[in-house]
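4.2 Preliminary Data

To establish feasibility before requesting continued support, the project team ran the inverse folding procedure on a target of 347 residues. The structure was first converted into the token representation described in Section 3, and no sequence information of any kind was made available to the design step. The complete token record follows.
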């Protein structure tokens, strides 16, 4: 079905281009080479004893291995696609078996077998959260230093240029914050960050996040209109909406739904109404979806004894309602846990 939708909407994913950066490749080679820097043991060729039977492979085993190749994986340095090796397993089995057995008998691995295409992977979204009281931040800075030391110990390099610091401070009198230093470089302090797809601001409002979600959802409405012009039935249009538009609008909705302004709710609901006109069907409102998601998450936490916040869902003495959480501010009252307990008690 999705292939048909892509054909109707004329959707084509852009193919990323690979940069020709020789300096980066040299740095990458230097990084992986440091793991062998301390390995100064000479290479010794082990000659099998004349009386020993050399290890050998069977044609059937080689043929079976070729037929089990995952064709979705990328080709190696020889640029031979996996599907070629798999489809030609019968023709290649005898040739490859002779090559492998010759290598085993001579105890020599061909140089072409020692090459590989290495695609580096990077770990993102490493976060350090600290609570600072009375401008006493040594513990927070020590935690950051421990993270830097751990990265250095494990041959990881922190990119300070991409590292950001966000300060959430609701005191009436705010004092200046000493810049955070990593490897003698100051970390940039920002007013908003994107964490796991959610826009978080230093005042914990969600207008920026909802605006970003609405923008992404409106782009998907174009494909929904193209499908409507192709005279697809409403069930398929609804399925497309639920999978590509509603999933965007409700991304992490249990986190930001309680602190959303009325104007933000109206902006999100406007996208739902537009989708209703296109599909010609009635769709669940964003408010109902938010309450349903919060209730589902709350039920899971209340039943999971291993969850770190399971103790917040404590039943009262008569065992029918959950104890309410005492809230000193409206911001905390509208956050997930107090809101979830209110929904559970009202159900």
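Position-by-position output of the design step:
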């Amino acid at each position: 079905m999705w292939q048909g939708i892509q054909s109707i909407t004329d959707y084509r994913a852009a193919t990323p281009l690979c940069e020709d950066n020789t300096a980066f490749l040299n740095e990458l080679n230097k990084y992986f080479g440091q793991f062998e820097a301390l390995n100064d043991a000479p290479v010794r060729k082990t000659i099998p004893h004349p009386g020993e039977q050399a290890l050998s492979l069977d044609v059937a085993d080689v043929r079976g291995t070729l037929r089990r190749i995952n064709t979705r994986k990328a080709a190696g340095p020889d640029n031979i696609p996996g599907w070629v090796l798999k489809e030609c397993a019968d023709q290649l089995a005898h040739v490859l078996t002779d090559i492998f057995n010759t290598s085993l008998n001579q105890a020599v691995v061909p140089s072409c077998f020692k090459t590989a295409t290495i695609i580096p992977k990077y770990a993102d979204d490493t976060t350090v959260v600290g609570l600072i009281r009375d401008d006493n931040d040594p513990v927070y800075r020590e935690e950051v230093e421990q993270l830097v030391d751990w990265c250095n110990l494990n041959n990881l390099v922190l990119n300070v240029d991409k590292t950001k610091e966000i300060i959430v401070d609701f005191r009436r009198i705010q004092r200046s914050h000493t810049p955070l230093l990593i490897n003698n470089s100051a970390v940039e302090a920002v007013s908003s960050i994107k964490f796991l797809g959610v826009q978080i601001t230093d005042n914990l409002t969600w207008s920026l996040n909802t605006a970003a979600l609405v923008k992404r959802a409106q782009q998907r409405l174009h494909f929904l209109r193209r499908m409507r012009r192709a005279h697809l039935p409403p069930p398929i249009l609804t399925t497309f909406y639920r999978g590509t538009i509603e999933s965007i609008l409700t991304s992490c909705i249990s986190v930001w739904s309680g602190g959303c302004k009325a104007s933000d709710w109206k902006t999100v609901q406007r996208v739902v109404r537009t989708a209703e006109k296109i599909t010609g069907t009635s769709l669940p409102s964003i408010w109902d979806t938010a309450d349903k998601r919060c209730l589902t998450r709350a039920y899971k936490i209340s039943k999971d004894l291993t969850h770190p916040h399971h103790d917040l869902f404590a039943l009262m003495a008569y065992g029918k309602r959950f104890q309410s959480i005492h809230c000193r501010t409206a911001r905390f009252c509208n956050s997930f846990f107090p809101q979830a307990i209110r929904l559970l008690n009202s159900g």
